[in-house]
Amino acid sequence: MPRSELAAWLRLLLTPGVGLESVRKLLAAFGLPEAVFAQPATAWQAVVGARAAHALETPPEDLNAALDRLLAWLEGGTDRHVLTLGDPLYPPELLQMADPPVMLYVLGDAQVLRHPRRLAIVGSRNPTPQGETNARQFAQALGQADVCVVSGLALGVDGAAHDGALLGGAPTIAVVGTGLDRVYPKRHLELAHRIAAQGAIVSEYPLGTPPLRENFPQRNRIIAGLSQGTLVVEAAVQSGSLITARLAAEQGREVFAIPGSIHAPQSRGCHALIRQGAKLVESAQDILEDLRLSEPATRHESPAPAADQEDGLLQAMGHDPVSLDALQARTGLDTAHLQARLLELELSGEVARLPGGLLQRQAQG
């Protein structure tokens, strides 16, 4: 894209007092940004009103600095892209949204945005150990079926979903709420590098944009819009994951939810979605069949252990969170023996400790 054209796009998007709705109206009325700025202010006013038209008369003070920063970023590698409305690589599904992003910054393979099979996996930033395991295992199984997992690079379920998809050998898309010249959260820096190498990181926010709270719910519409369906692994009743699920449903996409313990706050959002009509799923195969996607070429699922082969302590735990006192009452084991066995199971990854002194069995496979 020529410098002058890129400058016109940035001027349109960075002008204070001109929101995305006004930008889309101007583009619909006059065409490309350079054509917009070729119009007199009276023409702008007729489309977006006097206040926005007055704001457009003066270029933003930081326009040249933002343009230089973007050009330097684009020159940093062939894996850096800017997609605008009408670009051949712009995802057509986003154009069907009421408020599509006007510009997308992409780090990685922009072709991944047109992957034929995409599923969003979202959930709690503070999942139970089992919830994090579920996210990774579902994503890995979907990746083995050549499904591109879309998520938000957040802590918890998002990070596990991206990691699982990569382990499954498929590309994954991370839609973030910051500029692409920074990684948030910082502990996902290595994961972000892996995603960019095997998939794509996407943002509608200019370079330099910090992690502002209001940007994350806004980016959820892109996660939902890019995907044929959305799987919620764990979520509280009031959470960004449920916003993503609602947006997916409003866009006519399928919503799936994994049920959990009635005692876990992280399961209540999923149970609410199921009551509202989301599809309860127990395996990745449920999703593949519902979306009519082909099965993985090679499935790597471990058979479930037979009941008579299960550890007696694990049988006593069940699958819900349980306190040490309750477990001792169920098993009749003395405290020292019980603690020793629990430590063995914890070290082997079969049991996890939860906040509040609770314990929970973890599914294997």
TrEMBL record:
Return the InterPro entries for the record. Answer: DprA, DprA_WH, DrpA_SLOG, WH-like_DNA-bd_sf
This protein's source sits in the domain of life called Bacteria
**Residue stretches making up the DprA winged helix domain:** 300-357
Pfam families xref list:
DNA_processg_A, WHD_DprA
Start and end residues of each Smf/DprA SLOG domain: 82-291
Family classification: Belongs to the DprA/Smf family.
What name does UniProt use for this protein? DNA processing protein
